[in-house]
Amino acid sequence: MQFSLGMLKDERQHWILDKLSADKKVSLVALSQELDVSYDSIRRDVIELEERGLLKKVHGGAISNSYLPMRVRQAMGIPNSEISIIAQKAQRLFHNGQIVMMDGGTTNLYIAEQLPRTLELTIITNSPPLAISLANHPSVEVILLGGSFHKRYQITMGSETAAQLRHFKADLYFMGVVGIHPTAGLTIRHYEESQLKRQMMAVSGKTVVCTTFEKINNVEAYQVCRFEDIDTLLYSTSTILPETKGWPRHKVEFI
């Protein structure tokens, strides 16, 4: 079923929320077809609704705004093949005895859920869902950073979080971002979180960024760092490589 042109943005977003309430998940492509508007318009609608705390954007669509472990997302049929590929690649970077910084986001959460049971690590995180996912891991020590809890992003941040970071030195930092661009750099939507990510980079030996296709060439409001400031880019599909032709790849390891 297609809708006639001229639907106002508020009406369109209300319809998206109704659809999400009924179906538990929505696809950006399907919404674009059903509402007879461009994919980019639907994508912007979903981003706005996420920023208002009304849903959670995932690759290719959206789900209700609540913490869902990957096993639940799989049961719901939400696409996760790209995240699975990234998680498999990420395992190569872990070694016994490391101290690893991981912030919030669905990709980092899934990477944590997939850590081998024999791996001995210390994970420092400002993500309560990520910390909870490691509660039953027999050989991973978890340090959860305190501070003000941001309900929408499900992370801690603020002056208390920043103060605690000064006491740590990590080997690796898995940093979550929303946009990756050769000149605009790595960007996110929240200013205070961008400052916290910079500090996490400063106390870590190497910074790893994981990306799905939709993040490439996307630019958000607040820069965390330049692209060449990171050490490793874990990508999910080879279709990303043509999109990054001409980027300063000699300074960043692509895996």
From TrEMBL:
Any GO MF annotation of the entry: DNA-binding transcription factor activity
Source taxon at top rank: Bacteria
Protein's recorded name: DeoR/GlpR transcriptional regulator
Keyword terms of this UniProt record: Repressor, Transcription, Transcription regulation
All residue ranges annotated as the HTH deoR-type domain in the record: 9-64
Keyword Kinase included in the entry's annotation: no
Taxonomic path: Bacteria, Pseudomonadati, Bacteroidota, Cytophagia, Cytophagales
Any single Pfam family the record assigns to this protein: HTH_DeoR
